[in-house]
Amino acid sequence: MFVLTSILFGASALGIIFLVLLHSGKGGGLSDMFGGGIGAQTAGSTVVEQNLDRITIVT
């Protein structure tokens, strides 16, 4: 039971870290590598960025 709990905790921690790194900050961040920074510069906040915000808040 302890091993299962540890695995779930580690997986959720890595998932949250990944979601935070996908957010575009002042410099674009990791999301800029996947083209997320281009839409954010032209149209403000993109649908992808809004969905990332929602997912991060829920987790």
UniProtKB/TrEMBL annotation:
Keyword Transmembrane helix among UniProt keywords: yes
Residues forming coiled coils: none
GO molecular function terms listed in the Swiss-Prot or TrEMBL record: protein-transporting ATPase activity
GO cellular component terms listed in the entry, alphabetical order: membrane
Membrane topology, record value: Multi-pass membrane protein
Subcellular location, principal: membrane
Biological process per Gene Ontology, one example term: protein secretion
Pfam families found in the cross-reference section: SecG
Keyword annotations from UniProtKB, A to Z: Membrane, Protein transport, Translocation, Transmembrane, Transmembrane helix, Transport
Subcellular location: Membrane
Keyword Transport assigned: yes
Sequence similarity: Belongs to the SecG family.
Protein name (Swiss-Prot/TrEMBL): Protein-export membrane protein SecG
Organism from which the protein derives: marine metagenome
